[in-house]
Design goal:
There is one protein chain. With 218 residues, this protein is an alpha+beta fold. Helices cover 33% and strands 26% of the residues. It contains six helices and nine strands. The strands form three sheets. It has a five-stranded antiparallel beta sheet with strand order 5-9-8-7-6, sandwiched between helices. Strands 1-2 form a two-stranded antiparallel sheet. It has a two-stranded antiparallel ribbon with strand order 3-4. A hairpin with a 4-residue loop joins β7 and β8. α2 crosses α5. It is globular, with a radius of gyration of 18 Å. The N terminus is likely disordered. Bound molecules: zinc ion. Zinc ion binds next to α1.
Length: 218
Amino acid sequence: MAKRREVSACAFCGAPDGVTDDHLPPRGCFPAPVPADRITVPCCERCRLEWGSKDDEHFRNVLHCAEWLENDPRSQAVRDVIGRSFQRPEGARYAEGFVAAMEDVFTPDGNAEEKVAVPLDDRVSRVVERIARGIYWRELRRPVPRTHIVERAQLDQYRKNVEKVLGRIGQYARGVVRAWNGQFQYVFIAEPTVGEAFFTCCFFGRAWALAFIRRRRT
Ligand SMILES: [Zn+2]
């Protein structure tokens, strides 16, 4: 059996220097304290700057200000933190835009639900992409190759039966991986030779995100 090598290079770019542990998904998505079964990946300083903590905050806000998490006390704890950030002077302008952007939610069948949410944007996609890249490293012990792209990184606002669907998909992988006190679950399916993969996850058993990692078409 091969001995597991100690990995100290960045999970995102492979750089060997200045690497520290980065929480994945962003720690702010979950209430404090950070549980023992959190996920961390090594991240270099340059990637940390590139992926930006402002996007992390925005992602957290979009995730938790969806009405279907309203009755979840764990989500309430995060919403309290968000509420305080909105009240800070430097957060006021962002908060105004955030609330103004809320719109009706539709199911995939096109039916309006009696709910509102903030529409998904590039910043949300970037965080989903970062999570997908980090999990790719966690599962395959190498960064997403430069020849590959992370495609359709998105957060799905349709939340019915998410855990059931995740369980079904998990049959084709090594099952569903649970972390962060069960507040985060994911399935990762990879074709290790070409390095293409499918990643999907859910937060608090409701909102879910997915991404495809595939070789760039030439
Ligand atoms: Zn890096």
